[in-house]
Amino acid sequence: MRLTEEQILNSQNNLVSFLNNFGSTIYDNFDLSSKQLQTQINEYSQKYFRSTKRWTKDEAHKMAFARYRNGYLGFELIEKLNNETLNID
Predict the structure, then answer these.
(1) Which helix (H) or strand (E) holds 79?
(2) Average pLDDT score over the chain
(3) Fewer Cβ neighbours under 10 Å: the N or C end of the chain?
(4) What is the rounded CA–CA span in Å between residue 52 and residue 33?
(5) Closest CA to 71 of 11, 5, 2, 16
(6) What pLDDT score does 66 carry?
(7) What pLDDT, on the 0 to 100 scale, is given for residue 67?
(8) pLDDT at site 13
(9) How does pLDDT run across 50-69, given as a tens digit for each residue?
(10) Residue 53: how many CA atoms within 13 Å on its side-chain side?
(11) Which residues are CB-neighbours of 49 under 8 A, at least 6 positions away?
(12) Both ends of the chain: CA-CA distance in Å?
């Protein structure tokens, strides 16, 4: 299962509900086959998250250049990221 950063930030309550429900399903049905498990993952993810298509490498570069993340991160987090430094020892 893959979630985008945007899905997690915009759906934090749904993420908690998803993890609780999915965790219960695994615990209660420990003998699920991998196919059944994948079906459960798909059902829960469709229930709790808006679908997002995977992007290509070129699309990712365009999104980075356009600062796409700034549209959903919020001012405080953007400021924190802008002031972040890399310390290499």
Answers:
(1) helix 75-82
(2) 81
(3) C
(4) 26
(5) 5
(6) 87
(7) 86
(8) 84
(9) 777 888 999 999 988 888 88
(10) 5
(11) 3, 7, 11, 14, 18
(12) 35
Q: Which residue's structure tokens are 């365009």?
A: 62
Residue located via tokens 């570069």: 61
Q: What parts of the chain have a pLDDT lower than 50?
A: none
Q: If you count them, how many residues does the chain have?
A: 89
- What does pTM read for this prediction? 0.53
CA distance 13 to 45: 13
Look up tokens 């498990």; give the residue: 37
Task: Show the tokens assigned to 13.
Answer: 């309550």
Comparing C-alpha atoms, which of 52, 51, 48, 50 is closest to residue 17?
A: 48
Q: DSSP letters along 34-73, please?
A: HHHHHHHHHHHHHHHS---PPPPHHHHHHHHHTTTTHHHH
- Residue 77 has a pLDDT of 81
